[in-house]
Structures are given as C-alpha cells and as structure tokens.
Design goal:
Length: 267
C-alpha cells in the first residue's frame, strides 16, 4: 500500500524511506521533552539528551535518551560518538539558570553556565557538521531567549550567556554557507512551563481572580515591553521548529521570534 492506501501495481515496489533523525538537548522536562515527544510522534527517530536520569523524565520509550551534564567539560568529548551519524535536525534547547544570588557564583560556576548555554551548542554543532556527508542536509535550530535585549543584576549572567549564544549562532550560519546546512535561532519570550503556570494559578486562586488576569499582571510587571498577554505555549514552539526545518537552506541565519515584541519595533 502507498500512503494514500492504494495497492501497488504489478512489478511496482514500495519505496522505503528512512525515518529522519533528530537530536534534541534539554529533554529531561519542559520544552525539550515536548519537542522530543512530538517529533517522535511525527515519525522522527529522536535522540534526546538531559541532565536527569531517564527514570525522572516522562519521555516515551521510542525516544532514545542520553544522560549528560553539559557543564562538565568531559561531557562534550563523548557526545559525538554517542550521537552517532549527524542527525537531519539538531535542536539546542538545554539551559542552565544561575541562582538568585549571582554574586556568590564562583568562576567555575560561571563557566559552567556559559558552557551549557552557549559554548557546548557551538562546539557540538561544529563537530556534527564536520562529520556530515556533503550531500546530506542538516538543519540546526538554536533556542534562545529575549533576555539578550535587557538585563538587570539578577539576570545579567544568564542574559550574557544567551547573548554569547546569539553571536556564536550568527557565526555558525556564516560557516554553513554553501555547506548544505542551515543554522537558525528560535527566540522565545516567557514560556508556559508547568511550574510557572502552577504558581500563577495558585496566586489567582488566593486572590479570587482568573488565571488569565494574573498572567496579564505578571507579564506587564516582569516584562513591561511585551505586547502579548499570555505565556507562549510549548506547541507554538514545536510548530516553529518544524517550520524552520522545512525551510531547508533558506533558513540559514534566520531568527524566528516568539517573544511578544520584547526586542523593540526596530530590531
């Protein structure tokens, strides 16, 4: 049978199409777990990477899972061999957040945050693209944050690591010119992660108002430059990753923004 359910005629053979392969970092929970799960549901052969043990994730069994701490300098040495052949799609989603008291961070801890948020995505992409057969296309989607446009003392370390990621992503896009690959940025505003949604719902219940009203107040106070009044849902991010990957080489150097206008109207 073909995809339309029609029987093949005499002498015809069904064409075997190998499933495309995807590699997604930060798949222990949150957006990364949703991305890996939805790609697997779409028929991709997915390898996910996360810091937590597999038993602490909700990933479906069809997702191959690698456990690694990207803040460990030794982790990167082993990853290319564990991943194997360069995937058709690479999504860099892993993230490390500093503690509230950033003044207490040691230099090693600062380096660990930059390693997860910017240095490992850069180095690993170079390694995987170098191993890619020239005829095989590879799409790389780098998840970044609107925090690159503004920072205060508490968020400065995180914002700086993401700003470094943005610059390195731009350099990777230049590297990919005429290499049958594309490196693009998915720039995100505040996400509707379960923990944040639960906190806002609890506040709404205590105040006797709707969750939507509390969410609007939260966004206006924490992100006064946003033009959206709701958190960005995971499925919108999944659709954006699919869109970028489907663009092929046209997506090289692209920035797809789901940040509610937080970068300003002229940027």
């Amino acid at each position: 049978m073909n995809q339309a359910g029609n029987q093949y005629g005499p002498g015809e053979e069904q064409e075997t199409v190998a499933a495309k392969r995807a590699f997604v970092t930060g798949t222990s929970h949150g957006l990364g777990a949703r991305l890996a799960t939805r790609l697997a549901e779409d028929g991709w052969q997915v390898t996910g990477l996360g810091r937590r043990p597999r038993s602490e994730t909700a990933l479906p069994p069809e997702v191959r899972y690698l456990q690694a701490d990207l803040s460990d300098p030794k982790a990167l040495d082993e990853l290319p061999a564990l991943i194997g052949e360069t995937p058709d799609l690479i999504v860099h989603n892993a993230v490390s957040y500093p503690p509230r008291d950033v003044s207490a961070l040691t230099l090693d801890e600062l380096e660990g945050i930059f390693r997860v948020n910017s240095l490992v995505p850069y180095r690993l992409t170079l390694d995987l693209l170098a191993a890619k057969p020239p005829e095989r296309f590879c799409s790389v989607v780098v998840v970044n944050s609107e925090s690159i446009y503004h920072a205060d003392f508490a968020s400065g370390v995180y914002a700086a690591s993401k700003a470094a990621l943005r610059v390195l992503t731009t350099s990777l896009a230049d590297h990919c010119r005429s290499r049958n690959a594309a490196v693009a940025t998915l720039l995100l505003g505040p996400l509707a992660d379960p923990g944040k949604v639960a906190d806002l719902r609890a506040v709404a219940e205590r105040r006797g108002v709707t969750e939507a009203e509390i969410t609007r107040l939260f966004l206006r106070k924490s992100n006064p430059d946003l033009v959206i009044e709701q958190l960005i849902d995971f499925d919108a991010c999944v659709r954006s990753v699919r869109y970028i990957a489907d663009l092929g080489t046209t997506a090289n150097g692209m920035m797809c923004k789901l940040d509610g206008g937080s970068s300003g109207s002229l940027v």
